[in-house]
Amino acid sequence: MTDAPPVLEFRAVNTHYGPVHVLKDVDISIGAGQIVCLLGGNASGKTTTLKTILGMVTPTTGDVVLDGTVISGRPTADIVGRGISMVPENRRLFKRMTVRENLEIGAYLREGSDLEADYERIFELFPRVKERLNQKAGTLSGGEQQMVAVGRAMMAHPKVLLMDEPSMGLAPVLVAQNFEIIQQINEAGTTVFVVEQNANMALSIADHGYVLQTGQIVLADTAQALLANPQMRQAYLGEVG
Question: What is the pTM of this model?
Fold first, then answer.
């Protein structure tokens, strides 16, 4: 679907939790250098999609492919080492550790390398993080915690950055700032896959979008086309026809 060479793909992926069929013949193509969003409500299969990318769920059939290599079934640490990093829902920082220690964890597979340039990149995106380096992560505001979570993921130098519900729990002004940061990260060369319920915001920055409903892709198009799609506008953008 994308017009850029795919860096990450789902090829006819089916997943099950026991007898429950969760993802059903899902095809997704994330082009290198793009922002692609996956939209859907609760229990649509969005979280399972991310878990499948990270190797926490193995497809029953079909493949997840990164840079032409099948990564389905590989250990999560191996997949992260190949260039996939995630900003999880609700941030999930180590709250008793300092901001610096949380950032260092993001670079654990690069242990021994010079991290100072990475810190400076994070500080350019989030000056507030520099001010909080020695503070316990659990004492930060929700917006500050989100900054640290994004910074931690970026410390891994990901090819693809996964973002799980980045707007959740944030005030509207912080949501807008957060999506501006996503754009800046993308413009600096990182491919971004955003899983989000806030369809308007996600589509406003994305190149392409997919809509997942009860485990099936029901809409897939450019973000601009999805924003103009009557079915999308009524069912997912809160408009009444």
Answer: 0.88
Q: Helix, strand, coil proportions of the chain in percent (round to 5)?
A: 40, 30, 35
Residue with tokens 């193995």: 58
User: How far is residue 136 from each of residues 52, 53, 92, 102, 107, measured CA to CA in Å?
Assistant: 32, 31, 13, 9, 19
Supply the angle between the helices 116-125 and 142-154 in degrees, to the nearest 10. 140
134 with 100: CB under 8 angstroms?
yes
The CA-to-CA distance between both ends of the chain, in Å, stands at 28
- DSSP letter at 136 equals B
What is the domain partition of the chain in residue ranges?
Answer: 1-83+161-241, 91-157
Q: What is the pLDDT of residues 4-38, one digit of tens each?
A: 789 999 999 999 999 999 999 999 999 999 999 99
> Are 199 and 228 within 8 A, CB to CB?
no
Pairing relation of β-strands 208-213 and 216-222? Answer: antiparallel
Tally helices (H) and strands (E) across the chain. 10, 10
Residue 78 CB partners (closer than 8 Å, separation 6+): 55, 71
Answer for the pair 54, 41: CB distance below 8 angstroms, yes or no: no
* Rounded CA separation 89/165 (Å): 6
CATH number of 1-83+161-241: 3.40.50.300
Going from the C-alpha of 43 to that of each of 40, 48, 91, 150, 209, the distances in angstroms are 8, 9, 20, 25, 18
